[in-house]
């Protein structure tokens, strides 16, 4: 990864996530907190639309940059309506639970702002983006600071899985063991006070409820 790529990524993230902030607060997907512990939070997220950039790659960091770049173009008019869309937080990257050095299917995502929920403009085909609809569901969340990268995310994921076992006896609450996600909230120009989260889909004893602590 060359310095120019890094520069572009920083620049884009900055425009995306600080520029807008001066004008209005950055939107995030809505949720309610079902359980809150020192080392984990269970949230119930509302139904929502997300713009997704699938990326085949070997690195979380590199794949996030690749996907972000395509989403950035979409947000800046790379859609059939030439509409400009407001950026939202976080930048979410879903990662397969078992990764291979030969290549993995990452997906980099942005929540679609309220104005376009359910009806975002069609992406230009060459950007290879898709619109994903999420039904309302529960997510176990672990927060961590610093820069999320290939060297530190696995430790955070393991810690969240351990917390889930601690509170729920086993990892049976985990809905889909095949993948988890990393949410990044801040522009790369912020060196401190950064917030990231590990997200794992979970389900409670009944289909509607999120798991509650014992
Ligand atoms: C995009 O443009 C089409 C055709 O003009 C219009 O019907 C549609 O509502 C627009 N979509 C958005 C999200 O602005
Ligand atoms: C989490 O669940 C939602 C709703 O079922 C689904 O759309 C999404 O793809 C899941 N995410 C992961 C990382 O499995
Ligand atoms: C990072 O993002 C979080 C969540 O939006 C925010 O609370 C925090 O203040 C941000 N940090 C910086 C340094 O801007």
From TrEMBL:
Superkingdom, taxonomy of origin: Eukaryota
Stretch forming the signal peptide: 1-25
InterPro entries, alphabetized: Reg_factor_effector_dom_sf (IPR011256), SOUL_heme-bd (IPR006917)
One Pfam family of this chain: SOUL
Alphabetical UniProt keywords: Signal
Family assignment from sequence similarity: Belongs to the HEBP family.
Record-linked PANTHER family: HEME-BINDING PROTEIN-RELATED, SOUL HEME-BINDING PROTEIN
Full protein name: Heme-binding protein 2-like
